[in-house]
Amino acid sequence: MEKFDVAIVGGGLIGCSIAFELSQENLRIIVLDRQQLGQEASWAAAGMLSPAPHSPHDIPLVPLAKESLHLYSEFVREIEECSGVPIGYAQSGAFHIFFGSNGEAERDSMISENKRLGLHCESIPVSYARKSENAVTAEMSSAAWLSDEGIVDPRLLMEAILAANRNCGVEIRSDFNSTALTVDRGRCTGIYGNGEVIAAKQVVMAAGCFSGSIISQTKGFPGRLPVRPVRGQMVSLRAPSVPLHRVLRSHRGYLVPRSDGRIVAGSTIEEAGFEKRVTPEGIRHILESAVELCPDLGKAEILEMWCGLRPGTPDNLPLLGPAECEGLIAATGHYRNGILLAPITARLVREWIMQGRTAFDATTFSPLRFNESYSGAVPTTR
Fold first, then answer.
1. Which residue, among 138, 110, 136, has the nearest Cα to 123 in the 3D structure?
2. Which of 165, 176, 190, 277 is the most exposed place for a label (fewest CB within 10 A)?
3. Cα separation of 338 and 136, whole Å?
């Protein structure tokens, strides 16, 4: 039986970011994934780095998202230095485009809410938006500028962080089908899968939408991790006549530029279980919203269509922190924000493991909050 200081279940960006953060502590670390690492939600993501709430339900997430965005440039710098792989990160800002007779009122409401939350957001003239992004539609009624927002190429980021982890001595195992945790007298002691047990002093559950099923198959586990798959479809386009420099988005969709000239358009939000496939309806919705933002994209070349399974929770907020079972830390359920929240998640898990507490108050995201007996107290990681 192999023994590690920390075993991380899930090799997407969250799991690999935690491993990279912990690699600085001279620990023996292993990352386990059911397939090739980074091939689920991380691989499918657009890479927008936006702390602004998508809906009122996202407002509790804003402080955590702001903290993670603050950490991002240093996060990228360290990974690039350790891996030698450029990531394609830029703090280029974003335009939010509004349509119709209510566009100005919707813009003003969004700006007011963002400012209340401490986010930089301002009204800009339509003429300025069109001068900055020549391809944006003339049919917009108003626009807002979010100067702090950024972009990153998630696939390049995964390539880089995998290389960085290997260079730091982290053991990585793909095609390891974790079916259950091992529990001894109320303490998590490792992971069972592929007919073997990987023993660890601390286990981190970062398996995205598969986290809940692993917990449900664990004998002796006193609680649950309610995570479900939420399908998101995406399209990659190439249009030399549309030189996009920053994120464009509306209430219907978004466009994210890549450094090689591609434009990623998204996305759908579908409760389709574990059914992972693109659909005509989903792709049509994405293309219509893309052409609405930039009409010249109607002549673009479609390079790729794909989908991923985001990890959603009952309130669509992450599950972060010590679980009911001693020795287990949850780092899952990031829903649409896994790329953005990777730096702060890694920092929090490192602090829980090394210090037993965190500088940032993450109580809101405790994985215990869905238990009827939860009192607001967070159990020790020791």
1. 110
2. 277
3. 28
